[in-house]
Amino acid sequence: MTVNPVRRPAGADIARAAAETPVGRLFLAATDRGLAACTFEPESAVIPRLDRAGSPGGPADIEALDLARRELDGYFAGRLTVFTVPCDLRSASDFSRMALVELRRVPFGSTLTADELAQRIGRGRAVRAIGNTLATNPLCVVLPCHRVVPRGYPAEVGTHPGGAAVKRHLLALEGAAA
Questions:
Q1: Straight-line distance from the first to the last Cα atom of the chain, in angstroms, rounded to the nearest whole number
Q2: Contact (Cβ atoms closer than 8 angstroms) between residue 62 and residue 34
Q3: Which of 38, 87, 140, 145 is flagged as catalytic?
Q4: Which CATH number fits domain 94-174: 3.30.230.70, 3.40.50.300, 1.20.1510.10, 1.10.10.10?
Q5: In this protein, which residues make up the domain named Methylguanine DNA methyltransferase ribonuclease-like (predicted)?
Q6: Which end of the chain is more exposed for a tag (fewer CB within 10 A), N or C?
Q7: For this structure, is 145 an active site residue?
Q8: Which CATH superfamily, name and number, covers 1-91?
């Protein structure tokens, strides 16, 4: 893993790394609060978004980046079912943050629908907003948006930031695919 700190205008660092996985390359970034990105997006799209979110100005949590890499390796090797890396969700809206935190509670190998996720956060009519949150999940795999499936699952797996094939792979890895 390569860790390259980048100076932010506010004086805080963003540590970054790439993780090569069975579903493709993931870009990882950590701030002073923990893992802020685990995404298929390019670094050039992620860093400006993290800069706009702001930071209290502390040094990047390189340990969180290292932990994320080890946990991703364990997950893809079938040895890890729960991610413990601290997550920095300050770039998400309040609504998205609620939905993403609730995603972390969906057990390995389980699925639910967007309707069910909306109900769990007390926003039963916000299914479209749930879909937008899942499509822009800044911490895919770690915050398991792949576990949210359409009503017709397994015939339809729905969308995923990495694409339908990635979602199918992750669900199969967890034994959730029929």
A1: 34
A2: no
A3: 145
A4: 1.10.10.10
A5: 18-89
A6: C
A7: yes
A8: Methylated DNA-protein cysteine methyltransferase domain (3.30.160.70)
